[in-house]
Amino acid sequence: MQRLSSRMTFFYKWVFPAIWFGFLALFMAIPLVAPAAGRSVSGSSLGFLLVPVAMAIFGYFLMRKLVFDLVDEVLDAGDALVIRNGDREERVALSDIINVSYAQLTNPPRVTLSLRNPTQFGDRVTFCAPVRLSPLAAFSPNPIIDELIQRVDAARQRGRR
């Protein structure tokens, strides 16, 4: 089975948020540790607390919208897709996919499958498209996703006959 989702999904879902919130926690800890080191706390220390809190809130809502809803893996099984998220797995026939939406100018690039019949993942499944390192990749269609769109359309046409 060919993998349709990016191998970077684990990084986007787990490593990057840990780094983001870890650095913000570190920046928040600095003004809290400074008085213990014998330094005085000034009004600017309040900024060292408020800015990371605001960045954490902004980062959480942004990641909730763009990252946390990604499934771990999508595999091509010929006439179906195998969708995995954690220890859950579901097989979705290509003919059960209503629409394939590809947002290539987001980071990470997202593919959303609208499904005819809801699965355990819901009626929409979103995964990270394979990341391409070409400088012009953002301005050209992803060949793997384009092929998926064509195959979904062909499966729908066969289903109508």
Report the CATH architecture of the largest domain. Roll
Helix-strand topology string: EHHEEEEEEH
The secondary-structure class comes to alpha+beta
CATH homologous superfamily assignment of the largest domain = Pleckstrin-homology domain (PH domain)/Phosphotyrosine-binding domain (PTB)
Describe what you observe in this structure:
There is one protein chain. The strands form two sheets. This protein has a four-stranded antiparallel β-sheet, with no helix packed on it. Strands 5-6-7 form a three-stranded antiparallel β-sheet. The protein has helices at 9-33, 44-66, 143-160; strands at 2-3, 73-76, 80-85, 88-93, 97-103, 110-119, 122-128. It is α+β, with helices and mostly antiparallel strands. It contains three helices and seven strands, in the order βααββββββα.
